[in-house]
Amino acid sequence: MTDTLDSLEARPPEQRERDLMARLPQLVARAKAAAGWSRILKDVNAVDINSRAALATLPVTRKSELHDLQTQHAPFGGLNTTPVGQLARVYISPGPIFDPEGRGQDWWRFARPMYAAGVRAGGLLQNCFAYHFTPAAFMVEGGAARLGCAVIPAGSGQTEMQVQAIHALRPDTYVGTPSFLKIIIEKAHEMGVDISSIRHALVSAEALPESLRAWFGQHGLPGVLQVYASADIGNIAYETCSGGVRDPGMVLDEDVILEIVRPGSGDPVPAGEVGEVVVTVFNPDYPLIRFATGDLSAILTDAPPSPCGRTNTRIKGWLGRADQTTKIRGMFVHPSQVHDITRRHPEIVKARLVVSGRVAQEAMTLHCEVADPASASGAEIIESIRKLTKLRGEVAFVAVGSLPNDGKVIADVRDYQ
Q: In this structure, what are the phi and psi dihedrals at residue 406, rounded to the nearest 5 degrees?
């Protein structure tokens, strides 16, 4: 027995892939109607972008570039296809970065993770995300409206009132950050107030360490699930459970095409290898094409089919940040520079720049996976390091498969004592 929001979640993977690729040319064509995307995709013929291989030829647009893009072309960098006055809301994230919300139902695609967490029609949830400037609370509102669930717009803070609201109104679900859920539970214990009506919880915006997940289980909430989302994309992936047991990884949203690329590049890595999360989102108001989130993750390659019935690709969740820019002897070195070095030398299968020693006396060594480390020559690679970084570096050759699978392109192991 499966319990999914709709039949899309249970599609055969091959059908899902065909459906997504069939929709891709129309998405690119719509995006090109916006000034920003028209510039980024100026030489792209939309009808040709109908496969993952074709998609991988398009430029990557990075989240870290949004502030500059929006400064040049306010308020959304020319990436919106719906005029500002026809949107539902405009948000401000730190940076500042401006994020739009259109008028479509469940615009942030939050109904899927909420349904997976146990939210059902006729239920009542306490929404503890902030309603101030940022979109998280409204992501929940949109999902709840689609599911037919009522919302207590509690926001964040005022812990005693949060406890009193749960006690009086008996919501069945908490949605918010994991740290605030812990604070509410602790405050309820301190006040001697029953909040046992909360049987489900969906958390986001912070890490959920296993120690805290176990703590929730000890305090009556064993099924706390996470959603991986952002203010520009909405829902990307989310946790599910089967028979009260959490399923491996996080399942992708049905309107997202995921690529995992080597940090500093747009090149997809082999399935299972850690890299930067790049997404293409089917959003008619704010299409995002090869949008690099700056987060690291990997595709789960060894997970069996989930008993929950959802058949989409699963990822390992958030594994760190992809922007590993490092300052060495007063010069910034970027992952993209490491990528450019490897492109100049096709014999390099994979590379990692290791910065060691003490600050101001550091050594920079490019560790390169090659087919035959014993016979490899580093002279030309050393020269490429100097030309591209303006710094002196050494080369160390290792066998293919020797470097850790952690997504790091630059590893800073300097002694800062």
A: -130, 5
pTM score of the predicted model: 0.87
Flag whether pLDDT at 1 surpasses 60: no
Would the pLDDT of 134 be above 90?
A: yes
Q: Give dist(CA 244, CA 241) in Å, integer.
A: 6
**Strand 250-252 to 350-358 pairing:** unpaired
Coil/strand/helix, residue 60: coil
CA 288/CA 282 separation, integer angstroms: 7
Task: Please give the full DSSP string across 178-239, using - where no structure is assigned.
Answer: HHHHHHHHHHHHHHT---TT--EEEE-SS---HHHHHHHHHTT-TTEEEEEEETTTEEEEE-
Helix crossing, 159-169 with 178-191: angle to 10°?
80
**Residue 387: φ, ψ to 5°:** -65, -40
Please tell me the distance from the alpha carbon of residue 409 to that of residue 389, in angstroms, as a whole number: 14
* pLDDT, mean of residues 86-101: 94
Residues in CB range of 11: below 8 A, 6 or more apart = 19, 311
Q: Are 253 and 237 in contact (CB under 8 A)?
A: yes
Q: How far are the Cα atoms of 24, 127, 152, 384 from residue 250, in angstroms, in the given order?
A: 23, 22, 27, 40
Distance CA 324, CA 48 (A): 33
Which of 16-20, 257-261, 412-416 is predicted with the least confidence, judged by mean pLDDT? 412-416
Strand bridging mode 245-246 / 241-242: antiparallel
pLDDT at 303: 80
